[in-house]
Amino acid sequence: MQFRKNNRLLVKKDFDFVFENPRKTRDPNFTVLYRENTKNYPRLGLIISKKNCKHAHKRNRLKRIIRESFRRNISKLKGHDIVVLNKHTTYNNETHVLTESLMRHWIKISREKHHG
């Protein structure tokens, strides 16, 4: 599946919806906030802070890795708005470590949807 514009959280109102009453999943690499939405597709928002990752090329790499992982798992995440935040050591990790970390977050979110 593709990562389209309707799969992105783009405006403050959409981010605020998630921040209002979020569910959380955390690990050493990411904090993921999520909330069920009324749509039949997931939406992703990224908050990759300059404070936690000083170099633009490293922030851009993180964003690419997160978007690609999300795109590959879109079918599992239907009906959620998701915001991913990086931790201060995240940018040092190898791609496969970050991908595995995100996979664990996606699985946790998808299980909650099915088991309530």
Which geometry do the CA atoms define? Answer: globular
- Overall mean pLDDT stands at 92
CATH architecture identity:
2-Layer Sandwich
Tell me the total number of β-strands. 4
Q: What portion of residues belong to β-strands?
A: 15-25%
Would you state the CATH class? Alpha Beta
| Total number of helices | 3
Query: What class do helices, strands and sheet pairing give?
Result: alpha+beta
Structure description:
The protein has 116 residues and is of the alpha+beta class. It has a single domain (5-115), classed as 2-Layer Sandwich (Ribosomal Protein S5, domain 2). It is built from three helices and four strands; from the N terminus they run αβββαβα. The chain has helices at 12-20, 56-72, 95-115, and strands at residues 23-26, 30-36, 43-47, 80-86. The chain has a four-stranded mixed beta sheet, with helices on both faces. Helix 2 links the parallel strand 3 (43-47) and strand 4. Helix 2 packs across helix 3. The radius of gyration is 13 Å and the shape is globular. The two termini are 26 Å apart.
